[in-house]
Amino acid sequence: MLHELLLALQGYTGSIFVKDVDSNYLQVSNSVLPLHPSERELLSRFGKLGGLYRYFSQYARRGCEERLPQQPSIYIRALCFGLEQVLRGYSQEIVELEQDILNGTENSVTEIEARLHHYQLLFPAIEGFLNDLNISKARGCYILELLHRH
Predict the structure, then answer these.
(1) What Cα–Cα distance (Å) separates residue 59 from each residue in 17, 31, 34, 130?
(2) Which is more confidently placed, 49 or 78?
(3) Are 79 and 143 a contacting pair, CB within 8 Å?
């Protein structure tokens, strides 16, 4: 299960985590054996992280360059650069978790949650900012104003 959890944290679906049709998140499949509500909640938080990671990766890869018909502004390029830095740190944490698991280090699901806790706070804030940015179609310094609000 830990290997599928690591894949889900990187935005991949499988037998435990499936794409939620109403959001960017991954959700725990209903076909999973009965889980305690607290276990399901914990796995749902991981699914949210994985879904947001995939959304941010796609945004940084395609969204920033396709957002405007001309060359993206320096503000958009800086946003994408910053987003890619956050994603690199997150990916590195996932790699370290996988190495720990492969080396036989005992990792519980709650320990994984503790190591990724700061992303559970950061990713929803980034999601809110990107949603506001897309809705308002902000350009130039207005992007900085949106960033300041979040």
Answers:
(1) 21, 30, 35, 9
(2) 49
(3) yes
Distance (Å, whole) CA 34 – CA 40:
9
In degrees, rounded to 5, the angle at the alpha carbon of residue 104 between the alpha carbons of residues 116 and 30 is 55
- Write the CB contacts of 26 (distance below 8 Å, at least 6 apart in sequence): 8, 11, 13, 17, 18, 19, 20, 47, 48, 50, 51
What's the pLDDT at 49? Answer: 92
Q: How confident is the model at residue 124 (pLDDT cuts 50, 70, 90)?
A: very high
